[in-house]
Structure formats: structure tokens, C-alpha cells
């Protein structure tokens, strides 16, 4: 499991999540920030500081946000 950053990040890109992640697994992409699903330890720290509530535990994602799981995987696969 992992945490996933969803659509609200694309308008905001606040970046507070990057500073609080204990395993440094959040990277900035062109259009949004991304969480590396292989490194995330599901601590929830990023969720608590996101000003636009864009970050969810994978199991809690709404159906329309499922696309962000694959989007993050693709981001880290392509480096
Ligand atoms: Fe990092 Fe924790 Fe957020 Fe995972 S849940 S991205 S480990 S701050």
C-alpha cells in the first residue's frame, strides 16, 4: 500500500509534504508532486500537512482518483 497524491495538487503544488516525509519519497513532477509507492511507509505525515487535502491512503481513494495510482507508478518507472 501507499499514499497517493491526487488532482488538487495540480493546481496548488504547495510542497509541504516533501518536508515532512521521513523517507524522502515525494518528488516534484511537472504537473504535481508524486509519492514513490515502493518507498512510502504509510505514516500519514504528508496527509496531515497538505493544504488542499490532495493526499489519500490508497485504500481510501475515490474511484475517480484511482488513475493517480497508475500515474505515480508511471512517473517513477520513467524516472
Ligand atoms: Fe512519506 Fe509518510 Fe506520506 Fe508515505 S505517508 S509519502 S512515507 S509522509
Outline the structure in words.
This protein is 34% helix and 15% strand. Strands 1-4 form a two-stranded antiparallel sheet. Strands 2-3 form a two-stranded antiparallel ribbon. A hairpin with a 4-residue loop joins strand 2 (26-28) and strand 3. The two termini are 20 Å apart. The chain is globular and about 25 Å long. The chain has helices spanning 8-12, 16-20, 45-49, 67-78; strands spanning 3-5, 26-28, 33-35, 55-57. Residues 3, 20-21, 23, 25-26, 35, 40-46 line the site of iron/sulfur cluster. The site of iron/sulfur cluster (SF4) has 14 residues, from helix 3.
Write the layout of secondary structure elements.
Layout (H helix, E strand, L loop, with lengths): L2 E3 L2 H5 L3 H5 L5 E3 L4 E3 L9 H5 L5 E3 L9 H12 L1
Antiparallel strand pairs: 1-4, 2-3
The site of iron/sulfur cluster (SF4) has 14 residues, from helix 3.
Amino acid at each position: 500500500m501507499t499514499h497517493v497524491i491526487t488532482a488538487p495538487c495540480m493546481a496548488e503544488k504547495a510542497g509541504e509534504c516533501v518536508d515532512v516525509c521521513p523517507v524522502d519519497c515525494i518528488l516534484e513532477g511537472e504537473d504535481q508532486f508524486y509519492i514513490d509507492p515502493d518507498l512510502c511507509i504509510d505514516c500519514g505525515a504528508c496527509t496531515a500537512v497538505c493544504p488542499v487535502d490532495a493526499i489519500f491512503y490508497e485504500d481510501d481513494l475515490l474511484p475517480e482518483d484511482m488513475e493517480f495510482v497508475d500515474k505515480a507508478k508511471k512517473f517513477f518507472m520513467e524516472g
